[in-house]
Design a protein that fits this description.
By secondary structure, the chain is mostly helical. It contains twelve helices and no strands. The protein is flat, with a radius of gyration of 22 Å.
Length: 282
């Protein structure tokens, strides 16, 4: 009689645990699914309801204000190109998914990063967890999310949130820790409170690093939404996945170009915001 090996036993425990969570936490996961999908649909409605040229003009105006006139013209024309190739709906869906997941990640990562920067013991606990998250293949996070939330945007949001979290948390913690010692000593000698020390001394020095974390989270989110197309997330990721399945090379190239356009626009805007924060803190 053969004894089951450790691998089979471990796999059985994992499967049984997911089944138990699905059975006993159905109400909770249904609530999470509805909450994530509702937030995504709300942001999508704000972007998709106006005509495409209004959104293109608005982003161009923001680019003009933050980067420059040349960037504004190029970004506006690039977004119009996405509409002309028939991928505007998918483009705004991807934009809504990235923005929703990134906002979720930053809402969690920045406070935890501040805490990690101020508390070395907490940082030593969080750091190996972030190493694990960043070294695991991104598509791994889709599998338990599918088991608990099913197919759809909520699963893509959860997986994208997990991938976008570590960069912002790490760089926020790094920025808080890199406050020059002489400024901390000056604040202590001046008798500032703990909150004043954080708000007036630590935070201004940390802002460039925090903004770099925002930029990196955006880039990680864009990389994940393409993979998340296999779970019915909608948008350009699903278009690419469908094109790969049908060997529609032209459609896959068009969708890839739209993703590159969105990524470059948000990347430049985030970089400009980081540079302006750095200049303001100096």
């Amino acid at each position: 009689m053969n004894t089951p090996d450790f691998s089979s036993q471990f796999d059985g425990v994992v499967d049984a645990s997911l089944e138990w969570l699905g059975d006993h936490g159905e109400f909770f996961f249904d609530f999470v699914n509805a909450l994530l999908a509702g937030g995504y649909k709300g942001i999508l409605w704000c972007i998709a309801y106006p005509p495409f040229y209004v959104i293109a003009a608005l982003i161009a105006l923001i680019g003009w204000r933050m980067v420059g006139l040349r960037f504004a013209i190029l970004s506006g024309l690039a977004l119009l190109f996405c509409a002309l190739i028939g991928l505007w709906t998918e483009t705004v869906s991807t934009l809504a998914l990235v923005l929703t997941a990134t906002v979720m990640a930053l809402t969690v990562a920045i406070p935890l990063g501040v805490l990690a920067g101020l508390a070395p013991r907490f940082d030593r606990v969080v750091d190996p967890c972030l190493d694990l998250v960043q070294t695991m293949p991104p598509y791994i996070y889709l599998l338990p999310a599918i088991a608990l939330l099913g197919y759809g945007p909520a699963t893509a949001l959860l997986a994208t949130f997990i991938v976008a979290l570590p960069p912002a948390l790490r760089l926020t913690s790094l920025g808080i820790r890199m406050t020059p010692r002489e400024f901390i000593e000056l604040g202590e000698a001046s008798g500032v409170t703990g909150w004043q020390m954080f708000y007036k001394i630590r935070l201004p020095f940390a802002l460039p690093s925090i903004m770099a974390g925002v930029n990196q989270s955006l880039m990680m989110a864009f990389g994940m939404v393409v993979i998340a197309g296999i779970v019915g997330s909608g948008g350009l990721g699903e278009s690419i996945y469908g094109a790969v399945r049908t060997l529609d090379i032209a459609k896959s190239i068009n969708a890839a170009m739209a993703i590159v356009i969105l990524t470059m626009i948000l990347d430049r805007l985030a970089q400009s915001a980081a540079q302006s924060r750095k200049g303001a803190s100096q």
